[in-house]
Amino acid sequence: MQEEIIWEVLIVQIISIVILLFLIVFFLRLSTSMRFEKRISKFALTSIKDNEKSYFDRMYDLMWRIIRANSNILKHSIVLSNFGKRYEKHITYDEKEFKDGIDYVSMKFLLAFIFTILNIITIMFQYTNLNIFSLMLTFIIGFFLPDIALNIQFQKKRKQVADDLLKAIIIMNNAFKSGRNIMQAIEIVKDELDGPISDEFKKIYLDITYGLSIDVVFNRFYERVKLEDAKYITSSLSLLNKTGGNIVKVFSMIEKSFFDKKKLQNELNSLTASSVFVYRILISLPFIFTFIIVLLNPSYFKPLYTTTLGYIAAILILSIYIAYVLIIRKVLKVEF
58: domain range? Predict the structure, then answer.
């Protein structure tokens, strides 16, 4: 009888997790689709009579109405407002009019409350008393889970910017050779390229139109993408503004330096491809084995979250695993 209850609880937990993951993936894909739709909407022909929104659009609008309503409350806190500024780098140029950094903080709190409610429902199915430590842990996981998704998205964007930065430098250098100034070169880059690099140069162009200096604008660009190449460009432009010099010659040197670095990076990626593949397999094996063990014996890991010694052991295991991942990543990362 007890084993049947355990299996029922396990099934409820798995279904709850699957539904939650589905909702997260759904909203992420929906957000991406909305961005693409807004990008191509000015080139599309829309029906005059059909002005009704689709079901997904209404759900998306409802979600953001809830988030913005919470954001209006959280804005009264100076601490949370300053905390929300760190998420402004995730807002694209087209989203600046209707998104703010505090919206992401509001999203984190909402997801944390949803996780906590799901945990309470699961505990009710288990017919056990509420565990404060478990509720706090669930709230913390829900609060920081969006950071993982945003960090993955940011790393993807950062990689795309790093890959396309050489193209931007080549376009700017050709513009300088043809007699254009920095403002015109930046405008050409934002119009000619697409993707994250175009979005970043749109922000650069907007900052310059607001009256910010070139070195400040490109320093803000570096703070957003955290790329050493962007820092190199910022330092070069700052020196040019202060000491003067031949901008064509400077950008020709930057272009050659970036080209050699990209060539070396491609060779390095080819040499370390097998090591990176083995690293990814090794960090995924613990999760695979844990999932298999839970399916075969749902109560196998029960001491880890029902006893004090189990909590200590779980924290120790996670600490060792995180340290292992960080050390291996540090070993595989080669800076030049």
Answer: 1-41+53-130
Q: How far is CA 270 from the centre of its chain?
A: 26
Q: How many domains does the chain have?
A: 2
Nearest residue to 234 via CA among 207, 260, 209, 210: 207
CA–CA dist 65, 80 (Å, integer) = 19
35, 92 Cβ separation under 8 angstroms: yes
Of residues 179, 32, 250, 203, the one with CA closest to residue 189: 203
Sequence-ordered list of residues with C-beta below 8 angstroms from that of 29, at least 6 positions apart, any chain:
none
Tens of pLDDT along 133-180?
Answer: 778 888 888 888 888 888 888 888 888 898 888 889 999 889 888 888
How does DSSP assign 274-335, residue by residue? HHHHHHHHHHHHHHHHHHHHHHH-TTTTHHHHHSHHHHHHHHHHHHHHHHHHHHHHHHH---
Q: The tokens of 34 are what? A: 């909305």
In a domain, 57, yes or no: yes
Six token digits for residue 21: 């993951």
CA 191 to each of CA 2, 41, 44, 187, 197: distance values in angstroms, whole numbers, following the listed order = 65, 17, 19, 6, 11
Give pLDDT, residue 123.
Answer: 72
Q: State which of 233, 258, 283 marks the end of a domain.
A: 258
* Among the listed residues 232, 85, 88, the one whose alpha carbon sits nearest the alpha carbon of residue 162: 232
User: What is the distance between the alpha carbons of residues 229 and 235, in angstroms, rounded to a whole number?
Assistant: 10
**Residue ranges in the chain whose pLDDT is less than 50:** 48-49
Joined together, the tokens standing for residue 127 give: 């017919």
Closest CA to 207 of 194, 197, 219, 196: 219
Choosing from 258, 277, 304, the residue where a domain stops is 258
